[in-house]
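hi support,

uploading two proteins for the ticket. first:
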Amino acid sequence: MGGELATAGPAVRISHLRVKRGRRLVLPDLSLEIPRGQVVGLLGPSGGGKTTLMRGIVGVQIVAGGTVEVLGRPAGAPDLRAKVGYMTQAPSVYADLTVTENLVYFGALLGVAKGRVAEVIDQVGLAGQAGDKIANLSGGQRSRASLAAALLGRPELLVADEPTVGLDPVLRASLWQLFRELAAQGATLLVSSHVMDEATRCDRLVLLHQGRVLADATPAGLLASTGAVSAEEAFLTLERQAPQTGPGQTGGAP
């Protein structure tokens, strides 16, 4: 496989990433660094490129140019498999299997100890539903089952795409508490959302609009630089100031 995973430097380093769909540039020229041990919020409206960026970080996105390094290795490298957890927006577990059966299966693929399955089930608050089929769970419970699968390998980087969509306020709060606990244990989390009030729960914010980074700052720094009183107001201020070329442009090199 070649090389040790880096223990210094940012968790993710992206340089001039370009992603196309047909002739449309979804990410025209994106550069970004994600520091280790923090909860980083990737915020912006639907269609702004958040999922595409996350797919690039976990190594499942075809790119037109640029580089993505994760823990010092090229994104998608085989030795990152257990080090990077990916919670997709849609549940990524099998509906006809129970919670435990799903996690035993994914755990076998990752080579984790059998006891780890019970640990993550308890960690995401599904101990009472461990023997239930995914098809019989609520939407929030299915999301937590997907999160459990992403946590099996004790990832150093957890990428979560809109994990709180459809959750009630109590479940949202418990999920963010879990994210904070994971960061306190040394993990790095990249959590996307289009809900701006979740910004206050993050250590750092990346505001994405039309495939471009409008801001990369702490919540306090973002408000100070824009004179806004909320992340939503700051985003709207930056959006008004940004060139409206967007990712709909076509053509070659930026």
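and the second one:
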Amino acid sequence: MVIFVAYEGFELIANSISDLKNREQNTEKAYFGAVGFVVVLYVLIAIVTVGSLTFDKIADAKDYVLAQAAAPTLGQIGFTIITITALISTFSAINATILGSGRVNYDIAEDQELPKYFCRKFLGKPIGFLITAILSIVLVNLFNLQSISTAGSAGFLLIFGLVNYIGFKKHQELKSKKSIHLIASILCFVAFCTLIVQQFQTNISGVLIALGVIVFCFTMEWMYKTISHKSGF
């Protein structure tokens, strides 16, 4: 589960495919280059962290463990540098998430799976950027971060499971390995169920929010498709 959280953001690369030149070649380079670099980086970070701190200290400082690992060598300056770097990294992750989500709304609307309103632009960017940013601010201020994290992880796992299932069904069209899609889909759904069961025992509100968001999304999509079909759009 920890590995899943560490690597779940790489799907954002796929969200930007429509803006890439030489999509197939550049997408492959982007994935292998980014994932390969991060694998090496994470392994090195793990080695340094375990070499600098005991497991008890790592457990106690789990929310700021990298800053704590830098303290024995670089002192308070190292702690401060890692803390600032972590904040910059957080800003970067938020920016990438909003960028990817806004772009997905735009692409889905172009395929007539969402209202054409999402194809409109605001300050030269898809209106989905603004909508996603506003909804994110509202959620952060209404719910605790653990509940939001649970809802986000549950959503990621469900989407990954469905995408891999579609890949399994269309493996010939995609020219991909059927077994990889099937295994990935099963593992994602197992992880989704495991997350829901585990969080239900410790964070019921997070589970309810996650399931509520999922049900809301499917309901809104069903209503839109029904209305648009009856209207002849």
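thanks. also noticed: The longest strand covers residues 121-122.
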